[in-house]
Amino acid sequence: MKSLIIYSSTDGQTKRICEKILDHLKNKISFDLVSVDKALDLNFENYERIVIGASIRYGKYNSKIFKLINKNLNILENKQSSFFSVNVVARKQEKNTPGTNPYIKKFYLSSRWKPKKIEVFAGKVDYPNYNFINKIIIKFIMYVTKGPTDTSQSYEFTDWDKVKQFAFQIANFK
């Protein structure tokens, strides 16, 4: 049976993390990689392992993530299921674990699904590719949270070794 990775990505970093997970597992497990939009029409029964990755923008997950989870809750509960969150808050040491990240806590409060494996990854601030409004808002958020504010730069905070470890945990999931 195949496995499935679903992503909800605002600026592409969550999709990039999913692709890196696939790279680490390409000789071990066969995965389909699909966006949350396309996953809404999939039959989850056809997969033995399901991984969902979702990014945060302005403090929220894409509402389609919760629609997808609610539609497939019973299946997710009975499969080898995992969830990961991608957010820039996780760039901070004290907020980069599932137990300390506020968006993982928010996920647990907003979802009835209790994934068997959960992780959090720091995302990316990509000022040069933001439109004017997003650039200003994100710069303000970074200023308040003592993050980078030079809008001529991109700042990648993703710990790729942590992504690799997560991939191997998924591969060995029983």
Please give a quick description of this structure:
The chain has 174 residues and is α/β, with parallel strands linked by helices. The protein contains seven helices and seven strands; from the N terminus they run βαβαβααβαββαβα.
Protein described:
The structure is a single chain. The mean pLDDT is 94. This protein has a 5-stranded parallel beta sheet with strand order 2-1-3-4-5. The protein has a two-stranded antiparallel sheet with strand order 6-7. The protein has helices spanning 13-25, 36-39, 63-71, 73-77, 102-110, 132-144, 160-171, and strands at residues 2-8, 31-35, 47-55, 80-87, 117-122, 124-126, 154-156. Helix content is 37%, strand content 24%. With 174 residues, the protein is an alpha/beta fold. It has 2 domains: 2-123 and 158-171, 3-Layer(aba) Sandwich (Rossmann fold), CATH 3.40.50; 125-156, no CATH class.
> What is the first-to-last residue Cα distance?
14 Å
SSE topology string: EHEHEHHEHEEHEH
Biggest sheet character: 5 strands, parallel
Strand order of the largest sheet: 2-1-3-4-5
What spatial form do the alpha-carbon principal axes imply? globular
Runs in which pLDDT lies below 50 for 5 or more consecutive residues are none
Radius of gyration: 16 Å
Count the domains: 2
**CATH homology group of the largest domain:** Flavodoxin domain
Structural class: alpha/beta
Number of strands: 7
Tell me what portion of residues adopts beta-strand conformation: 15-25%
CATH topology of the largest domain: Rossmann fold
Assign the CATH architecture of the largest domain. Answer: 3-Layer(aba) Sandwich
CATH class of the largest domain: Alpha Beta
